Amino acid sequence: MKIDFTGKVAVVTGATGELGRVIARTLAENGADLALHYHSNEAKAVELKSEIEALGRRVVIVKADVTKQDSIEALKETVVSSVGHVDIVVANAVVQYKWTSVLEQPAEDYASQFESCVMQSVYLAKAFIPAMIEKKAGRFIGINTECSMQNFPTQSAYVSGKRGMDGVYRVLAKEVGEHQITVNQVAPGWTISERERTNGIAESENYIQQVPLKRRGTDQEIANAVAFLASDLASFITGAYIPVSGGNVMPTI
């Protein structure tokens, strides 16, 4: 069995982020042409574009605000005119903020998480799924988090946004399944990224002791799960929330 995205176009939001870069590279390495979304880091987007073009792929970089519908619609128009209709959507972007308790968390942080988790997904669906329906094929993948199952102190804004996102994906999976479009979520644990490899891996012994596999996962392992769900190997999987956390969280039946 082999993953082959030759002839497919994928859009990755937050593609200049630590995880987004690895997801984009992995899809490209398996044959996909890429639309790389960025919000502010144009230099990193240009660098990543060059890397992926060196693999022989078509690439377009697009600046957009994923919390605004008109910006997502403009992104779609740019992508379609540059590299064609999109077969794979990966909703990876999220607004960053400082975590604190419910009583101290500013209200605007809850709004930002709702907008970047829930509404981003809604806007991306409205923009890209109609063309997938016409083609009777498509992959719609969201990056969730193990935090959605943990509900630990200081996680409230993040968890509320991601749990809301989960609801959208489960309903969407049922609404578009008849068109052979799959809708799934990958939920990373605390992941080792390029930044940590460069600057030193954070102390994590207490975390690791809770993980059955006794280690932290890597950005590549998250990207591998995304690639699997985007591939024909996962053609009968939809509506799934899949933790990639070494067993640190386990959905129950």
UniProtKB/TrEMBL annotation:
Keywords from the UniProt entry: Oxidoreductase
InterPro entries, A to Z: NAD(P)-bd_dom_sf, SDR_fam
One Pfam family here: adh_short_C2
Keyword Oxidoreductase: yes
Classification via CDD domains: SDR_c
The family this protein is said to belong to: Belongs to the short-chain dehydrogenases/reductases (SDR) family.
Protein's name in the database: Beta-ketoacyl-ACP reductase
Gene: fabG_8
